Amino acid sequence: MGFSGYLRALTGVPLIPVALAHPVLLSIILFYGLNQFTKVAIVFVVIETLGLLAVIALGLPAFGKVNYLEMPPVLQ
Question: pTM (2 decimals)?
Fold first, then answer.
């Protein structure tokens, strides 16, 4: 359901069909062969790693410029 929610937020596709198709697709790949499933898993890990590196790269310009312990002023 998590993957379906993210995909729906990005593309607008319906939630339930994707939630049902996702494990079926992965099961078919796994049934076809463990070697192919391993290759797909490696591709997913590479995509996830690239996403994390992108977040780090986008946050690097603000590194050291933010005081994380500073409290916002209290409105009265």
Answer: 0.51
